[in-house]
Every structure is written in C-alpha cells, then in structure tokens.
Amino acid sequence: MSDLASPRGPAGPRSVPPGGEAIDFVQLLTPDGARKRPAEYPLDVDADTLRGFYRDLVLLRRFDTEATALQRHGELGLWAPLLGQEAAQIGAGRALAPQDFAFPTFREHGLTWCRGVDPAQVLALFRGASLGGWDPAVHNLHLYSIVIGTQVLHAAGYAMGIQRDGHVGTGDPARDTAVLACFGDGATSQGDVNEAFVFASVFNLPVVFFCQNNQFAISEPNQRQSRIPLYRRASGFGFPGVRVDGNDVLAVYAVTRDALDRARRGEGPTFIEAYTYRMGAHTTSDDPSRYRPTGELEHWQQLDPIDRLVEYLLLTQTGDERYFAEIAAEADALGVRVREACRSIPNPLPESMFDHVHVEPHAQVDADRAWFRAYQSSFETAGGAA
After folding, report:
1. Residue 8 falls within a domain, yes or no?
2. In three state form, how does the secondary structure of the chain look?
3. Residue among 107, 139, 142, 278 flagged as catalytic
4. Out of 291, 343, 356, 375, which one is annotated catalytic?
5. Which one, of 181, 173, 127, lies nearest residue 156 by Cα?
6. pLDDT at residue 275, rounded to an integer
7. Are strands 13-15 and 23-24 parallel, antiparallel or unpaired?
8. Gyration radius of the chain over CA positions
C-alpha cells in the first residue's frame, strides 16, 4: 500500500469471507475481543467511553429492530435496516466534533442517534408524515438522501463553503470544521460521488468520504462493481484512502477521528472504506435470500460488532452482567417509547407541503399556498350549501 493510498499505512488484517481472500484493514479489536494497538492509530479510551460505545450499539440495534417490526405491522411505509453496520455508524458519529456537519444516506440511523435526533423524527420520514423530520441546523446533520450519491456532492459544496469562510486550519479547535459524507459501496458507481471526489481533491476540501461497504448495492455484490478495493480509488483522485474493519467500533472511531482532524487542519480529504456487512435486507421490500451466497450470513454473524465489544468489556472487567442487564432494560424502554411515538405521529396538514420550500419567503410559493387554501375552502363552502 502506497503512502498515497493510506495516510498511515495498513494496521493489520483480517477477515476471510467464504470463498474469498484475506482482507487487510485497520483493526483495533478482534472478533474474539482481543485488543490490538497499531502505532498508526493510537487510541486510549476510558471505561466510561467503552461503556458508552456499548450502550450506543445496543440501543441503536433495538431502535432498528423496532422500526423493522413497525413496518411489518403496517405502521411505516418502508424501512432501511442497518443490522450489522452499527459499529461503523457509531464509530464515525462519535468521532464528529460538535461543529462538524454530516451528510447521511437513508440508512444512517446511527448518525442521527449520535447527533441527538429523536428516533420519532426519523420514523416520521418513513411513515410519510414528514419531508425530513429534523432541523439540519440544530443537529449539524443534513436530512436523509434517498437519491443515491447526491448527498456526497452536497457535502463537497458545503465543505467548500466552510473553507471559504475561514473555518479550516486556524488552529482553534472550537472553530475548525470538517464535513463527513456518508454513502454505500453502490454509490461509488454514481457520477455525483466521483464528481465530489474531483472537487474535493482539486480544492483540498475538509471532507471525509465515509463509505460503508456492506458488500451489496441492493442485490449486486461489490465485486461486480469494482475491480479493486474501494479505498484505493482515492489515490486516483489524489488523496488518501484507508480501509477499516467496519465491525470494530474502536477502529472506526480512531480512523475517522484521525481523518476529521486532518480535514480540520486543512490537509484535505480522506476516503474511508468501512468494511462491514448488511445482515438484514436492503429495505423491508427486499428479500436478500434470493441473492446471498450460502454461508455468507453465518460467516458475518461470527463477526458481530456488539459481540466482540462484549468480549472486550468482560476481558477488561469494564462491564459485567449487572451493567449489561441495565442496558437491556434501557433498550426495552426505548422499544416501548419508539412504538408509542410512531403510532402517535400526527398526519401532516396538506398545506404543510409549502413549508420549507425556500429559506426566505417566496412570492410564487405564497401565491400557490393562497390558491390551495381557496381550493380547500371551496369544498367547505360547497358542502355547507348542500
């Protein structure tokens, strides 16, 4: 691996998919809970931080499980599960500084969790009761992007803006800002994503491209999309790329934190490939059993991100059965809250479709809103006359 291919170099293997070759990536925590300490990515975390990571992973998985069940019960129109990708999302989300801005796909429920978005606001979008659910300015988190890859180009534009505004490379940790652009392996085939790479490289933008390679773009396996590992594409655009064990929350946190620090210092973009696996369906309208190879899911279940952290907590006596029981009880309470919140989401008023079309008042939108009000009133008048 060249210096350009990785800002730090490889920090050790490895995962061997069924019928595949060993995968080299940055790893700090093995599947059996053993701690690795690569010099390239030093990370010292205290007991509270480790327990916090565990709590994040468990509660996020419970939220995802409840949302999937709600869709099956007809309470949501659709849901995009993240089962198996919790460590990638929590590790990246917790690496963000408060002033950093993140651009998610439609599956970054872990990012919304880390940025303080109420789960009910996420559900409102999938229930069809909201156009987005939360205020991006409050959470420094853009709304979900349904069109594949568009958010990556938006992220490059935002990064260019904060660069021009002088919020990069000042040395002030409260001012210097980075951008996190999230996308999946399938999105790397989209034109918008590659255009974003060009802009980021040429203008040395403070953006971290965070790709969750969950092995499938809907039903198309990754090896049919790229002849080389995805992170190596970065070298062709002129900035570093690194592959990390996406099921290792410590490694993802360390690698993402390092890349965000580089961006804030004005050292330009980084491409991170979080090598993980989507254990569930692409969405609840999908049947992964039709395209998954036999034995692949079972292999990845042995690499479960929560299980390995549990092993490490037990080995280091950072967590015990009492603590795990407390988090389990909290997860149960979250499940109840999510179900109740989903069913109590009010249906939006038809007139609300004119809200948030433009940041500032707009004459055409105001005229359309007035016409629509008159149109609705005409039915009330007709009904009264009848």
Report:
1. no
2. CCCCCCCCCCCCEEECCCCCCCEECECCECCCCCECCCCCCCCCCCHHHHHHHHHHHHHHHHHHHHHHHHHHCCCCCCCCCCCCCHHHHHHHHHHCCCCCEEECCCCCHHHHHHCCCCHHHHHHHHHCCCCCCCCHHHHCECCCCCCCCHHHHHHHHHHHHHHHCCCCCCCCCCCCCCEEEEEEHHHHHCHHHHHHHHHHHHCCCCEEEEEEECCEECCEEHHHCCCCCHHHHHHHHCCCEEEEECCCHHHHHHHHHHHHHHHHCCCCCEEEEEECCCCCCCCCCCCHHHCCCCCHHHHHHCCCHHHHHHHHHHHCCCCCHHHHHHHHHHHHHHHHHHHHHHHCCCCCCHHHHHCCCCCCCCHHHHHHHHHHHHHHHHHHHHHHHC
3. 278
4. 291
5. 181
6. 96
7. antiparallel
8. 22
Q: Which of 256, 101, 116 is nearest to 167 (CA)?
A: 101
Does residue 273 share a domain with residue 369? Answer: no
Catalytic residue among 107, 139, 282, 308: 282
In a domain, 150, yes or no: yes
| All residues at 6 or more sequence positions from 332 whose CB lies less than 8 Å from its CB, including other chains | 62
CATH code (residue 204): 3.40.50.970
Q: Is 277 a known active-site residue? A: no
pTM of the model: 0.89
Tens-digit pLDDT profile for residues 356-380: 888 899 999 999 999 999 999 998 8
Mean pLDDT of 263-284: 95
Neighbour tally for 185: CB within 10 Å: 24
Does 291 reside within a domain? yes
**Is 291 among the catalytic positions?**
yes
pLDDT in tens, 78-97: 999 999 999 999 999 999 99
Domain span at residue 298 reads 13-343
